[in-house]
Structures are given as C-alpha cells and as structure tokens.
C-alpha cells in the first residue's frame, strides 16, 4: 500500500526552518509594500512577468534563461543567444498569462483552484506561504504543464499573502509532482527560492527607480534633449532596445535612433551589449550587469540624486511620458499596469 503523500503546509518545525519562514515572509512583504508605493510599477510588472515566465519554463525542463525571454518579448533576441524551443510554452502563452495577472478583483482562492480540495479544520491557522506551497503541489500533480507554477503569484494574492500580484514570485520544483521523500527539504528549498525571487525583485525595482532619477537628472542638464525623454521612458518598459526598434517606436530614422542610443550609452543611461559594429543592442545598466554583459560595479554605491525643483519638473514630464507609453501599449493589448 502506497504511503500517503505528506502535507507540505505542516512540516516538522525546527528553529532554522521557522527562521527561513520568517525571513521569506519579510522579503515578500517588503517587495509588496514597495510595489504599492512606487512610480515605476508598470515597468517593474512587465519585467517581473518575463522573469516569472522564464522560471516556469525552466521548471518544465526548458533550457532557457531570463535574458532569452526578455529579448524575445522585446522582439530582439540578443547577440550570442540562440533561440531555444519552448516545448509548447511560447510567447502567446506569456501574453495570455500577463492578461490573467491584470484581472481584478481576484476570486476567492477556492474558486480559482482547478482541482477539488477540502481544507482541513486548521487550514486557516497554517502559515499562508506554506498553504500556497501545498496547493501548488496538488496542482502540479494534477497538471503536468507550466500552469501550476504560473498560478503561484495569483494564488499568493488570493490567499492574502500579498496585496499585489507579484509575477516574479514563481517557484517551480519538479519534486512537487512526486511523492515527497523529505518534506522539510522541499519546504526549505521553496522558501529559499521564494525569498531569492523577492529579494531580486526588490533590487530590480530599486534599479528602475534609480534609472528614472538618473534619466531625469541627465534630461535636466541636457541643452538639447530632443527625443532623449521618450527614449529613456521607452527603456523602462522595453529594456532591450535596438536602433530599428527605437526608430519604429519613436518615428525616427534608423540613423537618428542609433545616434540617440549612442548618446544615452555615452551618458551611462544605457549599455551597448552587442559587441559588434552593426545590429547594436542596448540594455539598462542593471540588466546588463545581471545578465553578465558587464562586470558588477565595485565600491560604494552611487550617491542618490539630490532633490531640486528643476529635477521635480523633469520627473513629472518623465512620468507623463511613461503614462503615454502605457496607454499606447494598452491600445495594442499590451498594457503593463494592474490595480492592487
């Protein structure tokens, strides 16, 4: 007779495991709070969805990295990256998932489950992050596709673990489809993965906010900014850029778009990651570093831009341009915003 599958929401508690749960919950809460207050929400949500989708594909055994999804979603596979097959999980599914992320208000978590589940009497007193893990494990055993991994951000929101739907909080683990032999090991691995995703998400949000401030600072000092404002706003939501893509988006010549990108790169606002004389590609500095195109910055972090009235006016213009981009994307069915 087969042994019953253990419930991952009730592990054998130890001091280290309780500490793992506490620090993971704190990391998720910190990211959730920052997303509620930032001016860069739409840009972050768009990038976070690409990160979460890449994690779900890797959970299905697809040999693909984040940068591949970023490049494909922006229509510009980067140099030295070979397009990988996605075994049925293609970009149209990414677009469908992004649309599901924007659905509000959320259903009750039980209504959203694609399987039958009768919660035990003490279900509500169990840690919410572990309740999400147990439900994901049941979903993964019932569905062999990437759907269980992609459902996790919505599930965390529906269970009340987060106020916002945070699409980077995708944790994929093939062991959940098997009869777990070591429940505590799976729980620890899940908590570490979730905490790492939350910490990375917070770091990237800070980088986007810093890019916004640095862009405003550069614009406030530029004598002839020209199309620099819309370019830098575009880089927030479409971080993989090429002269051709910029020319189409901003209605410039390819030559003019190339010169504009080179100007932004010379100011340190973008990084040329192509390594070639033609078909250039550009990324924001933090992503260029994360994806290994440039070495990590050493020494003390750069001092924040000091507040001043002129900078506030440029930030207002920058945010207005961002809203205009969001509206254009919405008309194309590519909206990045979502309500909390």
Total strand count, please?
Answer: 2
**CA radius of gyration:** 21 Å
The geometry reads as elongated
What is the arithmetic mean of pLDDT?
86
Which consecutive residue ranges, at least 5 long each, have pLDDT under 50? 335-340
| Neighbour order of strands in the largest sheet | 1-2
Q: What portion of the residues fall into strands of 2 or more residues?
A: under 5%
Which class do the helix and strand fractions yield?
A: mainly alpha
Number of helices: 14
Topology pattern, helix = H, strand = E: HHHHHHHHHHHHEEHH
Q: What is the CA–CA distance across the termini?
A: 47 Å
How is the main sheet built?
2 strands, antiparallel
Secondary-structure map with pairings?
Blueprint: H1 15-37, H2 41-59, H3 66-73, H4 91-101, H5 109-112, H6 128-142, H7 147-150, H8 152-158, H9 183-221, H10 228-237, H11 243-250, H12 254-266, E1 271-272, E2 282-283, H13 285-290, H14 309-331
Antiparallel strand pairs: 1-2
């Amino acid at each position: 007779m087969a042994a019953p599958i253990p419930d991952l929401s009730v592990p054998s508690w130890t001091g280290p495991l309780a500490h793992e749960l506490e620090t993971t919950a704190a990391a998720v809460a910190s990211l959730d709070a920052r997303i509620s207050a930032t001016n860069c929400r739409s840009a972050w949500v768009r990038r976070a969805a690409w990160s979460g989708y890449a994690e779900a594909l890797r959970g299905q055994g697809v040999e693909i990295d984040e940068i591949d999804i970023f490049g494909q979603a922006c229509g510009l596979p980067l140099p030295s990256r070979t397009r990988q097959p996605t075994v049925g999980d293609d970009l149209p599914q990414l677009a469908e998932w992004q649309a599901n992320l924007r659905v509000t208000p959320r259903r009750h978590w039980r209504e959203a489950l694609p399987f039958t589940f009768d919660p035990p009497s003490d279900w509500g007193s169990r840690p919410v992050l572990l309740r999400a893990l147990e439900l994901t494990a049941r979903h993964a055993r019932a569905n062999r596709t990437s759907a269980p991994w992609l459902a996790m951000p919505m599930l965390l929101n529906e269970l009340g673990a987060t106020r916002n739907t945070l699409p980077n909080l995708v944790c994929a683990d093939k062991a959940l489809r098997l009869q777990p032999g070591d429940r505590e090991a799976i729980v620890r691995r899940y908590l570490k993965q979730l905490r790492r995703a939350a910490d990375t998400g917070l770091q990237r949000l800070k980088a986007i906010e810093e890019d916004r401030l640095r862009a405003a600072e550069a614009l406030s000092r530029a004598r002839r900014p020209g199309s620099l404002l819309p370019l830098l706003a575009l880089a927030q939501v479409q971080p993989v850029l090429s002269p051709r893509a910029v020319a189409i988006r901003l209605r410039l010549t390819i030559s003019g778009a190339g010169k504009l990108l080179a100007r932004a790169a010379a100011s340190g606002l973008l990084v040329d990651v192509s390594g070639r004389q033609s078909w250039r590609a550009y990324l924001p500095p933090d992503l260029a570093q994360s994806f290994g195109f440039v070495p990590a910055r050493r020494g003390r972090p750069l001092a924040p831009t000091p507040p001043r009235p002129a900078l506030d006016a440029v930030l207002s213009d920058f945010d207005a341009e961002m809203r205009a981009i969001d509206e254009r994307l919405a008309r194309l069915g590519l909206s990045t915003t979502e309500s909390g």
